[in-house]
Amino acid sequence: xxxxxxxxxxxxxALLFSAPIVDGESLPWEKDYASALARAKAxxxxxxxxxxxxxxxxxKMLENETLPCPAVLSALKEFVWIKAYEDKALNxxxxxxxxxxxxxxxxxxxxxxxxxxxxxxxxSFLRHVIAARRAAGLSLTKDMxxxxxxxxxxxxxxxxxxxxxxxxxxxxxxxxxAKHDATRACNxxxxxxxxxxxxxxxxxxxxxxxxxxxxxxxxLIIQVPRDGKPVRLRVIAPGCKCIEDWIGGDNKFAVAxxxxxxxxxxxxDAASFSGRVLWPNGQPVSDAIVRICDxxxxxxxxxxxxxxxxxxxxxxxxxxEAPGGEFQExxxxxxxxxxxxxxxxxxxTTVGIRWVLQRQEGSRELTGExxxxxxxxxxxxxxxxxxxxxxxxxxxxxxxxxxMDDWQPVRKxxxxxxxxxxxxxxxxxxIFWLFDKMNDKKTGLHAENRRFQEIxxxxxxxxxxxxxxxxxxxxxxxxxxxxxxxxxxLKDYYAKMEITDVTVVPKL
Length: 508
Known about the structure:
There is one protein chain. The chain is α+β, with helices and mostly antiparallel strands. The protein folds into 4 domains: 3-149, Glutaredoxin (3-Layer(aba) Sandwich), CATH 3.40.30.10; 156-261, Immunoglobulin-like (Sandwich), CATH 2.60.40.10; 271-347, Carboxypeptidase-like, regulatory domain (Immunoglobulin-like), CATH 2.60.40.1120; 350-503, no CATH class. Helix content is 20%, strand content 32%. It has 11 helices and 30 strands.
């Protein structure tokens, strides 16, 4: 397809999506799921199900901005529409991926034709509708065919070559082709990081929705949703001022970029932070772990006292951790000021974990200058963890594993022998639930018979089958003394991990 054809199609599709929209309240929703399913079966029509919540902002945006678009309404006219508000049974059946979750169903077999999660503008949402129509055997209009046929999918090898060369001009020219894809789900932001002398890219933490690995060239490609809302970019490095900025607010661009300069943090610019870690009864917590943004970590003394003498100004999550208790709160640090604050722990079931992570991409050796040791007490209240940052994450992006202290909601996903073992167990210990797969990377755990300190390399450096060596762990109790080797989710990182403590706090 030549550029002239692309430009023509882009203009035609832009006109298609710029047409006036109907009132969001006039959408053809049925009253309840049972009657909608019955009608769809009787009329031999597919079903369009929206799993939603009354408090969900992205759900309201989808209803007011995307679903009323004439192109979307036309593509969904053969479907029976239904909303389900915080329906636990349907959420479990269709594996809720966050509100809203959109499910397109064959009404007779209840086979999922297509599924998506989150807000999307009409252009990219229509891709899911087209896929559902094709799966249901429905015909496509000429406009739908245009949307289906051409799609900008960046060649990862080309992107990597541009990044390695530090060629931002080449990146902009290549990514600019995205503007001809009217249904793209994202725009592209190119961030160029300039690091001060002595700061290595591997030590830099760049976050938008997830952590981004910073290559030697300092160039990052960040995918920004096309919902018109800016997203926060944070860049943190040892001994540097924090960069915090908003990117991607303009929905009109296909590719944009900016240079960010990390500046050294002087003693005058830094903040200080001190206090005590306390049990709920006010007694000090000896040897508690205190961490700022999973970045700067210290230990409290025997009286629960802790001190951070040089804190980067900004707002960060602060955690206090000990067996059976945690504190978590966002705290703002102001440069040149001292903050004194006690951290009262909440009683909660925790799992103690220690690890050694190899931060050299692709290396299975668990020693050397790039190997980083850490430890933490993770709680079932904040249970999604990204091991490559030694971090607890507060969303579904990139978590290596999560903990659950109630396995009943996922009972039907467990094998019979697992259910029998959990029913027989009297420990009350949490279970491992999942290891995510991100970007088609093979991730997971390998249970080890060796002691933690004896492990110097994954599989002792010998060849192994990645398809079977690392396992997804679902429904198995967490036990003190378990040792694993791990392949992390977001980067080609390897680690060893040991469960050092399981402290169960009964629910009230």
